[in-house]
Structure formats: structure tokens, C-alpha cells
Amino acid sequence: MGTTTTPRTGYGDLQRLMALIPGDPKHPVGDTSTLDVIWTLYDRVLNVSPDTVDDPARDRFLLSKGHNPDAYYAVLAAKGFFPTSWLTSVADFDSPLGRHPDRVLVPGVEVSSGSLGHGLPLGIGVAHGLRAQGIQSRVYVLIGDAELDEGSNHEAIAYAGAAGLELTVVVVDNQSATNGWPGGIARRFVAHGWSAVTVDGRDHDALETAFRAPTAGRSDGATTGRSEAVGAGRPHVVVARVVPKQ
Fold first, then answer.
1. What are the strands of the beta sheet with 60-63, ordered from one edge?
2. In the prediction, which pLDDT does 32 show?
3. How many structural domains does the chain have?
4. Which of 65, 117, 123, 178 is most exposed, with minimal Cβ within 10 Å?
5. What's this model's pTM, rounded to 2 decimal places?
6. Of 195, 204, 200, which Cα lies nearest the Cα of 228?
7. How far apart are CA 94 and CA 185, in angstroms?
8. Per residue in 211-240, pLDDT tens?
């Protein structure tokens, strides 16, 4: 008797999966700017799978840019967290997939998001809770550079550095922030004791190296175009640069 196998869904399938989502995207640039970052995390870095979504020891990924969920949905579907058929009904009345991800309805989603400036403070709370329980898993938060216009993020950056929380924040930089930061985004974090790496947001190998830096050793300050390792007891930021928003 012959056997059948389910074709593996890979990075090359993501654009096709995103095309299944009906309607015109509200934020088309933001929907695609995060694609490579999210894929690299789920494909190479995160210790989480459809079978471990309730495991206390899993890694946590929080999408603060919840108003840009298309890439996130495509990656979750590709990795088997829910059927790809769900993508064809995004935003329908009875669909679990809305224009903002809902942690109650969507398998694998850690936090309901969409309002800018909330993801990093929530991630800090998650990291605190894990540390209090002695759980060694990692917390990853993805924010957009325009979210740095929100004061809540600056409070969170200062607090995480002072508390020595071991979490990783990814800032997707398409130069959409209103004011920017002297010396670049990474310097904003380094000023409060974070380690920082700035990489090409489409380069999967560079992204993986940057994400894994906190468990590979130690470095000081902000690096550009390369990944230097980071010691324990220090938050880490990866600035992923993509094509500037037009």
C-alpha cells in the first residue's frame, strides 16, 4: 500500500498564502515589511510549534504591529498552527482571523494587538512572569519603528534595561517614525543598557545570527552589519532595516 505525504510549506509559499487573504490590505507596506523577520523566527529560532502552544516552557512571540497581520497569519498557517483554508475568510463575520490578531481565537497567538505601543510593555510583563517562575524560555516582541513615537515604549525600554530582563525586541525599520533618534534606533536602546544589532531585514542568515546572539556570549554597545553576542541579564534589540516607506 502506498503512502501519501503532506507537501511541506516553505518560505516560497508565503506570498501565495498572503494572496489568499481577501480584500485590500489596510497597510500593504507594513504587511510585507515583517515577513522575513517573522518567518526566520518561526523557521529557525522560536522553540514553539502547534503541539507546544500551551507548554509553559515554550518561547513567546508577541506581534505589537497587530494592525499588519497578513504576514503573521501566512507564517502561522505555513507552520501548521491553523489550516491554510482559514486565510480565505479573514475578517468575515464568523472567521477567527480578524484584521487584528486575537489570542482567544487564533492558535499560536500570544497577545491580542493592534493599538500601537502596547506590545513591548506586555512583553516585559511576560518576561517578568517567566523569570519569577524560573522558566528559561525567551520572549520576542516585534514592533514597528513608528511605534517608537509612543511614550509607553520609551518607558518600557528604560525599565527593561534597569531590570535586566532577558527578552529580545525586533524593530522593523522602514523609516516611518515621525522623529527618529540621533545616531539611529539602536542607540535609543543602548542608552538604557540594551545590546543592539542592526541588520538587513530581508537577510535570513543575518537575522538568525542576531536573534541567537543573547545565548552565544557577550558584547557591548550597538553593532551595525554584524552580530556580536550578548551576556545574560541584559535585554537585546535587533533593528531590521527594510526598504523605506514611500
1. 60-63, 139-144, 167-173, 236-241, 195-200, 222-224
2. 86
3. 1
4. 178
5. 0.89
6. 195
7. 40
8. 999 876 444 444 444 443 455 679 999 999
